Inverse folding.
């Protein structure tokens, strides 16, 4: 009987659905059941989502590798291998010193008093871009591992293993397993240690753990015993620091999204280290403590609503809650229907967030796409009998079935957008965005790479 390989199937689907080329979007966090990905029993209408994953994997891979030592400022320890970042919402006020001329940046950092402007990023934060580099590495590792699980094409697992090795394991480039200097607050007498909020910098560890579990469980020949042992050792040392150092422990009791991400991050490290009992205990701790008071009876998240970017932070914490629930499901725990002290849960929080327009943001940020991923995730988990969630997405993004999250947020309606229907022309949708020629070139290039691998 004639059979077709997964890679060729995806390529053929992509040729017939060239509209599925999408601009890359970095999800705040996510964890996909490795068993689902490795089984390759995906719904037939997910070809567009599969192709987007392949495209993003290749697109991200050419941007790497990334390393923690790539920064122009040495941490106070004098060790370039120490992770370092500056508090993103801290701004200098040199005028408070009576200064009337522009100071050199190093003098600004050390002499000018800094104050917090919640939600407003100080652009010079990116001068030390360990945070951005870690996020980019996590995205590339995750997408390449997903692409390998779908196709078995070697280059994807090679990419994922290589990026992990360079960031965590290889002696010349490896990050030291701590976040002592994360989100340092500058100014006179400050800046020698980071802040507890800096523990959020490694929130995307769930993606890295997801990738490692896919490579490990799928017996990738490129995820060697040496690499696995190196990551186990790194994570064990990080866990020891993360569960004992005072800065990290302050984050462990944070009541808002910081606490939610702390526990997903800890459980992620524990799964990499083969400590599944510890990971289960971590997820249980989150849902029995911090989670209990994060959602009111109406579904509102008051600790996120009081921030200067409430739309963003509501979505942000829902994603963190869902990541913890997904990790729990993989570990044999069911917290999807677990409710907090006021009787509301994850679905209620998402439903409430959907009622708030993106313009309800004092700083003018408009980021409706932040809700797309959790909307699909909630619909797939709780069902969508009246089509509320599918309608929400189809009205704001007619190409949502080609987004990567559509592959694992199943079952979920495609709203008839994947199948051809009278009066609907996907090519016109793409052309209307003035991206059709470039999209076609990119897609064909990626396909050639797939078919030649």
């Amino acid at each position: 009987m004639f059979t077709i390989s997964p890679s060729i199937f995806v390529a053929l689907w992509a040729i017939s659905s060239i509209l599925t080329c999408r601009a890359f979007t970095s999800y705040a966090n996510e964890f996909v059941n490795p068993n689902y990905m490795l089984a390759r029993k995906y719904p037939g209408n997910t070809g567009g989502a599969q192709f987007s994953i392949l495209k993003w994997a290749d697109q991200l891979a050419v941007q790497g590798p990334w390393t923690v030592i790539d920064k122009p400022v040495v941490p106070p320890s004098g060790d370039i291998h120490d992770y370092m970042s500056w508090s993103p919402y801290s701004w200098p006020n040199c005028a408070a010193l009576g200064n009337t001329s522009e100071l050199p940046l190093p003098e600004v950092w050390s002499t000018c008093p800094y104050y917090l402007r919640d939600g407003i990023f100080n652009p010079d934060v990116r001068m030390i871009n360990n945070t951005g580099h870690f996020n980019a590495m996590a995205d590339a590792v995750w997408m390449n591992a997903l692409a390998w699980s779908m196709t078995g094409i070697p280059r994807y697992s090679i990419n994922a293993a290589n990026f992990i090795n360079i960031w965590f394991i290889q002696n010349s480039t490896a990050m030291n397993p701590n976040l002592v200097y994360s989100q340092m607050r500058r100014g006179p007498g400050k800046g020698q240690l980071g802040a507890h909020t800096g523990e959020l910098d490694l929130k995307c560890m769930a993606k890295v753990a997801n990738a490692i579990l896919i490579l490990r469980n799928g017996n990738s020949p490129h995820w060697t015993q040496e690499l696995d042992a190196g990551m186990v050792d790194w994570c064990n040392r990080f866990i020891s620091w993360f569960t004992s150092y005072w800065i990290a422990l302050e984050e462990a009791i944070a009541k808002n999204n910081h606490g939610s991400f702390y526990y997903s991050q800890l459980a992620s490290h524990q799964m990499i280290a083969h400590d599944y009992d510890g990971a289960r205990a971590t997820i249980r701790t989150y849902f029995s403590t911090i989670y209990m008071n994060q959602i009111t009876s109406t579904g509102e998240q008051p600790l996120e609503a009081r921030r200067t970017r409430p739309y963003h932070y509501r979505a942000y914490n829902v994603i963190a809650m869902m990541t913890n629930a997904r990790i729990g499901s993989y570990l044999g725990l069911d917290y999807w229907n677990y409710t907090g002290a006021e009787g509301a849960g994850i679905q209620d929080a998402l439903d409430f967030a959907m009622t708030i327009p993106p313009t309800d943001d004092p700083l003018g940020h408009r980021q409706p796409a932040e809700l797309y991923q959790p909307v699909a995730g909630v619909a797939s988990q709780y069902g969508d009998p009246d089509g509320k969630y599918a309608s929400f997405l189809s009205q704001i993004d007619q190409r949502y079935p080609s987004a990567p999250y559509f592959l694992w947020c199943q079952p979920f309606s495609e709203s008839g957008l994947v199948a051809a229907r009278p009066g609907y022309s996907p090519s016109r949708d793409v052309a209307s965005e003035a991206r059709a020629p470039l999209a076609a070139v990119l897609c064909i290039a990626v396909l050639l790479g797939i078919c030649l691998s």
Remarks:
- The mean pLDDT is 86.
- The longest helix spans residues 130-151.
- DSSP finds 19 helices and four strands in the chain.
- The first strand starts at residue 84 and ends at 86.
